[in-house]
Amino acid sequence: MDDLNRTFVGIRLPADVQSKLAEVQQVVRHRAGSDVVRFANPHELQLVILALGELTVATLDQVHRTITPLLPQFRPFELTVDGLGGSPSMLQPRFVWAGIGGDVAELTKLHNIIEANLISILRDYHARPFQPHIDLGRMKIESEQNRTALGRAIKMSQVGYVASLNVSSIETFRSTATPAGPTLEPITIYRLDA
Predict the structure, then answer these.
(1) DSSP state of 80
(2) CATH of region 5-191, choose from 3.90.1140.10, 3.50.30.10, 3.20.20.70, 3.30.1480.10
(3) Which of 80, 112, 119, 143 could form a disulfide with 102 if both were Cys (CB 3.0 to 4.6 A apart)?
(4) 0.70 cut: is pTM over it?
(5) Burial (Cβ within 10 Å: 0-12, 13-18, ≥19) of residue 92
(6) What is the pLDDT of residues 66-77, one digit of tens each?
(7) In the sheet where 181-191 sits, what is the strand order?
């Protein structure tokens, strides 16, 4: 493993959910124009619980030792993928994302406990309000015209319920650069029903 790893705590999406989100990406792509958004590879989509930043191998070990005793209090729960949104605003988004519903309270509790216990060991970490979503894509070239096109595409796509997922584990991932683009490599899987 490299000395520094861009890492996350998140939920790996099942193949059927990835496939349904790929269909959603196509709907937005056709409405916005294929040249406006760089969509994430559906096989790399995840629900980020906490972005940890660039960590050393030693800090990753410390993250593992911190997370492990926190999880016995959690049991599997259900989430839904529902709707589309854009950030930083729906009128002029730079990012397009799929919304999360279902047991968001349990997901938020999981985020809050992990964040509270890791914040002291994460350098350059800035706490923000947790807004669970799945990033689907981002602007290729920054312009007001492209942001407007993406905002219009999100609004016109009118995507509702996409899929459900049972969350029975979370993972730590690292982002790895490859010739085909960034890919996510699992580091550790933590079961919630242990």
Answers:
(1) E
(2) 3.90.1140.10
(3) 80
(4) yes
(5) middle
(6) 999 999 999 999
(7) 46-55, 5-12, 169-178, 181-191
